[in-house]
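User: Can you predict the 3D structure for this chain?
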Amino acid sequence: MSSSTPLNEVARHLLDTTEVDLLLITRSEAGISLFDQEGSRRDFPVRSKEVKDVTGAGDTVLSLICLSLANGLDIHQAAQIANIGAGISIERLGCVQVTLPELAQRLLEFDSDTKIFDESHIHALRQVFKGKRYSLLVLQKGQGITMPLFQAIRELTSLGKYPLMIYISDPHPPEELVHLLSSLHAVDTIVLQSENLKNLCREIHPYATYILEEDQIAKVDPTKDLLKALLEQKILSV
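Assistant: Here is the predicted structure, written as structure tokens:
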């Protein structure tokens, strides 16, 4: 077949010749395309900030496809992740390694509405914040939408360039509070009550931890003072 043959015809020929159920074709800076025996086609365009060098992009796709399928994801999810990974690899010169923290961070960037996490997402957050500094603000049970809360968020974001994570210790926080916080540009991540706050801090290592107490920000030790304060407020039980 000539180089000018439409991709759909090439795919149909390969499907008929190999008799595979699915065919994935990498297309360099154009992304990847997935075909099946029924004749359907799904394209995954490159999601990259800047294309510098496509060397190794195909290897990255193959690696992430295998890893995703081995972890139980379907082929469409696998293709999406692989394409994002390839997008990271072509932003740098040469054949480079795409790390799990880079992939996790890029997934969050592409899904900017996702700021709210629970216990099941701690591993992903650990990857996103690996090697990075960020501030953690712990909100006690019963915290509402108040001016001191907004002032605290503003004060913390003005202290430096560190991302702000908010931990809501209320097991049933007001829905309006969660959605309002997630809509704020200054708030990078919201973590709903974890069964073990000490484990959370150990997993993601906050650079500085604060608690809003009597409408004032107080800096605390996440493994000592914070747990003591939460126990005194009857937020946690022994």
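The domain at 116-232 is CATH 3.40.50.620 (Rossmann fold). The first helix runs from residue 7 to 18.
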